[in-house]
Give the backbone structure.
Amino acid sequence: MNIPTNHPRRASLEQRHALEKGLNQGIVTPTGMIAFGRGEAFDYLLGEKTTNNAQKACRAAAAMLLLSRHAVLSVNGNTAMLCAKNVIRLAQTTGAQIEANVFYPPVKKRRALIARHFEKLGKKILGKNTSKKIPGLASNRSLVEEKGIFSADTVLVMVEDGDRTQALRKTGKKIVAIDLNPKSRTAIAAHVTIVDNVVRAVPEIARHAQKLRNKNTEELEKIVAAFDNGKSLKEALAFMKKRA
Amino acid sequence: MNIPTNHPRRASLEQRHALEKGLNQGIVTPTGMIAFGRGEAFDYLLGEKTTNNAQKACRAAAAMLLLSRHAVLSVNGNTAMLCAKNVIRLAQTTGAQIEANVFYPPVKKRRALIARHFEKLGKKILGKNTSKKIPGLASNRSLVEEKGIFSADTVLVMVEDGDRTQALRKTGKKIVAIDLNPKSRTAIAAHVTIVDNVVRAVPEIARHAQKLRNKNTEELEKIVAAFDNGKSLKEALAFMKKRA
């Protein structure tokens, strides 16, 4: 696709094009396309920019990932197509693992396709050997890797289903979420929610992680403790309402 | 698909399922899926109900359609899958024609598929013999039937592209629009905009048309004259902001 570099909707058209490609490859589902559209509506309300509110959440997220013993970045079909390279960079900066974890069937096939997508970019990820289940979730949607999400102390979820975020939180893990809807169940269930487009938020967390990686534990814990997710979500919603 | 009749998200899941079916049939495009998702976000803000504000707009729309010499209901892939039966009923109540008119390629093939979809429901529609263009629009996206949209005095558009709504308006036609985004270019360009889901709005216009069809021209003109689209859109937006 040839989008002129100065096209006012270039970023948005590139994202749509990436998802259409993923749909053709079987990585993205029709429901994933609809979810992306819902996100677009919220992104318009944000002015398609990372707000100060989202910046602060990205900083807290970076600190939380750096404090973890074992962080996992959970990727689904949409995020694989939209921001794989930046997810790899974030994993490198924070020492986190990446695991393919999808909601819509065929889950096994889609997890394998996502893993291959990352392998083509030079990164081996988890998600093919799922022997464990997230408790409290029905069916094969709950399947995770023992050495990945199952044993992680922190999980980053992006554009995630509310049921799964809530189930992950109940296992005692720390949850970082990226979600454009500040009223979604995922946004509410997470410890740190970044209300932003994944395309902008993932590199932004990596940037903060790069700046914070030499801080000591106490300094990082202060950053996390100072972050109030409920207050942050209220701010994000107020920002959208003001712009609407 | 078996959705329990008491499922709280039944209506929404049925709509998604209809679109997925349309995607498999080639009637709906990936971009149409995304557009539907954007609409869902706005529909959440409406509480997924037809507001009093939308009711009033439906009444004005019904009056405008009844006043027309030659009204055409323009259907695209999404609206064909979401509300074909109710579009047929609205055409019968108001004496309007139906024309398949799509934005995304392959336009000729998709117009034919939509026509066949309506034929299966017992209704012949226009859209296959497009010899005329809407002025001011590039490419085959502007193609319309001479005896349909081209010569219509009123066109109902649903989930329409802003460029096309503006181009149609410039031809001097009256435009009725159904659009969940009260700030979209289509919503602003139309004479009467119903901020509602097409699934609810189309039968609602038909209900009003049924009630108004025996009114005389003067009474119908009063209803249309009393409707202020700018004011109505402001009300719709205020309603959403209050609920957000």
